[in-house]
Amino acid sequence: MASSLAAFHSAAGHVPRPRRPQGAAHGRAFSILQLLHLPPEPLPRRRSRRVAAEFATGGAGTTTGDGGGGRTRGGVGVDVAAVAAVLREARTADDVELLVNGILEGGAGEGGLLPLQVYTTVIRGLGKENCLDAAFAVVEHLKRRGVRLNQFLYNCLLGAVKNCGEFGRIEGVLADMEAQGISPNIVTFNTLMSIYVQQGKTDDVFRVYAEIEGRGLVPTAATYSTLMSAYKKAGDAFAAIKFFVMLRERYKKGELVGNHGNWEQEFVKFEKLTVRVCYMSMRRSLVSGQNPVGEVLKVLLAMDEAGVRPERSDYERLVWACTGEEHYAIGKELYQRIRERDGEISLSVCNHLIWLMGKSKKWWAALEIYENLLEKGPKQNNLSYELIMSHFNILLNAAKRRGTWRWAVRLLNKMQEKGLKPGSKEWNAVLLACSRASETSAAVDIFKKMVEEGLKPDIVSYGALLSALEKGKLYDEALRVWEHMCKVGVKPNLYAYTILVSIYIGKGNHAMVDTVLHDMVSTQIEPTVVTFNAIISACVRNNMGGTAFEWFHRMKMRSIEPNEITYQMLIEALVQDGKPRLAYEMYKRACSQGLELPVKSYDTVMEACKAYGSLIDLTTLGPRPTKREEPIR
């Protein structure tokens, strides 16, 4: 009869054979002698790294007393650890024969044999010591001496193969069992399943389980645990959940009663295993999934439907795996689940979520988590404060760039409501937003509140206030602010001087503009293209086109190269002054220098030439630019 187990293993595939030659146990047949019977006392426990148990060697019918290391009434005790140490170097049955005879020289044993329990314990020990050749040699020795082998011994041999990782020998063990007429039991199949899990052959694990059911064997808790391990290896959370639900239903119907002493405790372990499988699957999706949010949410929903409830620690570990911008939805879902469960949550997890929401630009979601820290706990730390402050700074900087001053003021008020103390950096961002939006009164109010909060304005604060006053044409108030700034010892920078010259241009005091430029040079602050752009822009705002063109020439005399903003403002000034041809020439010059002017400049030149009836070939301007965004002034 062909070996069904060997054929089953052959279909599963093999790893390469080990380098050391195998014993003769795979190719010989021996007659079967009388099976050795020993009392069913429990095997002694290991007391250290080495096995230190003793078994009686008095022969059939004798007892071992307490079974844990005592002597028989007429026998001699055997130190199993010593036997295993002696047999470690054995490679053949002859080696084992010689070594065992040396052990039994004192006349112990019957027929030159140790009890079968000793051999099984030795085989287990040899497997743990990675001495698989010696373990096979022991089995060959027993077969040569005509000992009837049993399931327990072959299961120990399979366990040794598993421990050593020489999976190519599995087929030989299974074939030998079949040749000896020994049917595999549930322990045999459990060991095979465990080996296939170790190899990552999950399909073979499920085929072995089908074989168990086909043979009518009763699965044990170890069988189900190994199946769960296979689902974990395969990363199939849905299959694991389905299997757990099926197992739970069988338990409720009483179909598992009698299979294990305490199935209630086992089900706690199975549920934890199921949660672990789901966690690994969701983590894998977060790390490398194409649709991580959808995949994780599906697993969470399946767990809810199956009544599988992860612990808080499981949710928190999954939160740490959320690191991408697209993971914010998962992070928020997990946060809500933790809060709804018992309200307790780790502060480090909250800080991670605040960081994640900020990275995903979900600023209000981050603020909500921070608010919960204030209301529900745990108490926030410095990292929590710094994270939420950094988020507010990002929002304030965006408001500053766009000039959305109302939004900036709202953010500042929100910070104060939540117990956050804005510093000079935050107040200055709001001032600059008001200045960019030309909201003079709002800038003045923010400046006053900043002083009332006990903060000392710096050059950025004064610069923003000066700019707002200049844009509001409150020149006298701006000059008083300048005097106060110098009086309190705040030294002006290039930006402040640039605003000052714009103020004097607005007042029509060109002499003071020259004085300011001289003061800049005396303080080693050289005027730049930004300075002259501000002067030309002020001329445009005050309908002083001729003056703007004059400052353009003075700029050239200082060897300062104009940029796109210079030409854009100059063209607008020349058109205001009724000089479309000159505006046309400035546009052509800018294009010849490789500068890209905005569409507004092109349209201004075209409309002015048509309005004034200039005899200019407008086709020389070229096509209308596609660039829509204008440079920031």
Structure write-up:
PPR repeats lie at residues 115-149, 150-184, 185-219, 388-422, 423-457, 458-492, 528-562, 563-597. Residues 1-24 are annotated as: Disordered. Keywords: Repeat, Transit peptide. The chain is an all-alpha fold. α24 runs parallel beside α26. A two-stranded antiparallel sheet has the order 1-2. The chain starts with a helix and ends in a 21-residue tail after the last helix. Mean pLDDT is 83; it is low at 1-76. The chain is built from 30 helices and 2 strands. The protein has helices at 4-12, 80-87, 93-103, 116-128, 132-144, 151-164, 170-179, 186-199, 202-215, 221-234, 237-252, 263-288, 292-306, 312-320, 328-341, 347-359, 363-376, 382-402, 405-417, 424-436, 440-452, 459-471, 475-487, 494-507, 510-522, 529-541, 545-557, 564-576, 580-592, 599-612, and strands spanning 54-55, 78-79. It is elongated and about 125 Å long. Helix content is 64%, strand content 1%. Among the domains are: 1-184, no CATH class; 381-480, Serine Threonine Protein Phosphatase 5, Tetratricopeptide repeat.
Helix-strand layout with pairing:
Elements: H1 4-12, E1 54-55, E2 78-79, H2 80-87, H3 93-103, H4 116-128, H5 132-144, H6 151-164, H7 170-179, H8 186-199, H9 202-215, H10 221-234, H11 237-252, H12 263-288, H13 292-306, H14 312-320, H15 328-341, H16 347-359, H17 363-376, H18 382-402, H19 405-417, H20 424-436, H21 440-452, H22 459-471, H23 475-487, H24 494-507, H25 510-522, H26 529-541, H27 545-557, H28 564-576, H29 580-592, H30 599-612
Antiparallel strand pairs: 1-2
Helix pairs in contact: 1-7, 2-4, 3-5, 4-5, 4-6, 5-6, 6-8, 8-9, 8-10, 9-10, 10-12, 11-12, 11-13, 12-13, 14-15, 15-16, 16-17, 16-18, 17-18, 18-19, 18-20, 19-20, 20-21, 20-22, 21-22, 22-23, 22-24, 23-24, 24-25, 24-26, 26-27, 26-28, 27-28, 28-29, 28-30, 29-30
